[in-house]
Design goal:
Elements lengths: L2 E2 H9 L1 H9 L8 H26 L6 H19 L1 H4 L8 H26 L1 H8 L3 E8 L4 E11 L2 E8 L9 H18 L5 E6 L4 E6 L2 H18 L6 H4 L2 H6 L3 H4 L3
Parallel strand pairs: 1-3, 4-5
Antiparallel strand pairs: 2-3, 3-4, 5-6
Helix pairs in contact: 1-2, 1-8, 1-9, 3-4, 3-6, 3-7, 4-6, 6-7, 8-9
The chain binds iron/sulfur cluster (SF4).
Length: about 260
């Protein structure tokens, strides 16, 4: 059995999610806030994945922002088809306007951060620097008992760097769940390509920042321990729900309604 790398983050958020979702097969409940979060997530993710293509259309720094804004309309048309499974029956249409204006503000940030790089390196070199070797790269390992899909893999002179795109709230550094996920992807790349992957990045789209994750022994061990804890739950271990209840987490958790009944 292989554990999805995204489950490491879910477990880190709350182990009960693994039990409710993967053992009891319960569905999470949609809410306006979560629907808005989901819509924002797919749009930001698409924007991050299309960034190199958009930059390649610009002939000067000034052209970048209008090109990205123009693409936003196209993304809104495309996401129901690309993320059909993820969006499902979600009633996201009423949320489009609010999410759109949030993202327009973020495009301003993206433009400001790209501008100095383009000024210094020029468009072609910037493009080379930000264009991934692979996007949405599926990978698995029987040795590691892990599988997943890496948002972007950069290849810098043969050195592979996994990048995990995150579209949610940003902290000062890297959230622990994001750290585990990125380190797990690095370990999967090492296993597949038999070369060291000493670090990866988490790309926080709201602030347009890539923050490093070092694949230290400690983080690698936490990846393995978390994987084993998930396997224990799937193989019959029942996490104590009350032990993990936390006002902040439960308030935003999609399993809140069903969790209280377990
Ligand atoms: S409602 Fe709270 S305890 Fe239950 S799964 Fe969600 S975060 Fe965990």
């Amino acid at each position: 059995m292989k554990i999805r790398v995204s489950s490491l983050r879910d477990y880190n958020f709350c182990p009960c999610i693994i039990y409710l979702r993967d053992v009891l097969k319960l569905e999470s409940t949609p809410s306006t806030k979560r629907t808005r979060g989901l819509l924002g997530h797919v749009i930001r993710r698409e924007m991050a994945l299309r960034q190199p293509k958009l930059l390649s259309k610009a002939k000067s720094v000034e052209e970048i922002k209008p090109i990205i804004l123009n693409e936003l309309d196209k993304i809104l048309q495309d996401v129901p088809y690309i993320y059909r499974e993820m969006l499902g029956d979600t009633e996201y249409q009423p949320q489009i306007e609010a999410v759109y204006s949030e993202i327009v503000d973020e495009i301003g940030v993206m433009n400001e951060k790209l501008k100095p790089m383009v000024d210094e390196l020029g468009i072609d070199a910037t493009l080379k620097r930000i264009t991934p070797w692979k996007v949405e790269y599926s990978i698995k390992s029987a040795n590691l008992k892990l599988s997943g899909r890496i948002d972007k893999v950069m290849n810098e002179n043969g050195g592979l760097i996994p990048i995990e795109i995150k579209t949610g709230k940003v902290s000062e550094g890297v959230w622990e769940g994001d750290r585990l996920q990125t380190c797990a992807y690095a370990m999967l790349l090492e296993d597949k390509f038999d070369r060291d992957v000493p670090f990866g990045f988490v790309e926080y789209t709201r602030v347009h920042e890539k923050r490093p994750v070092m694949t230290t022994q400690q983080v690698r061990r936490r990846v393995i321990n978390t994987r084993d804890n998930i396997l224990d739950i799937i193989n019959g271990g029942i996490p104590e729900t009350h032990q993990y209840r936390s006002e902040n987490k439960c308030r935003v958790c999609g399993y809140r309604d069903v969790c209280c009944e377990v």
